[in-house]
Amino acid sequence: MKPYSLDLRQKIVIAYENQEGSIRQLAKRFKVSPDCVRRLLKRYHTFVVY
């Protein structure tokens, strides 16, 4: 399976940060698994300095 595009990954993180839905809702909206969304968010929060 090919990795998801950077564009898609960014859209998912931005949508979550803008509170556009829950992890399950975003997974359904972007046609990925909820675990994929969780992993993206974990990776994002690990590397982002506030």
TrEMBL record:
Superkingdom of this protein's organism: Bacteria
Residue stretches making up the Insertion element IS150 protein InsJ-like helix-turn-helix domain: 9-46
InterPro entries per the UniProt record, alphabetical: Homeodomain-like_sf, InsJ-like_HTH, WH-like_DNA-bd_sf
Pfam families given in the database record: HTH_28
Protein name, per record: Insertion element IS150 protein InsJ-like helix-turn-helix domain-containing protein
Source species: Hydrococcus rivularis NIES-593
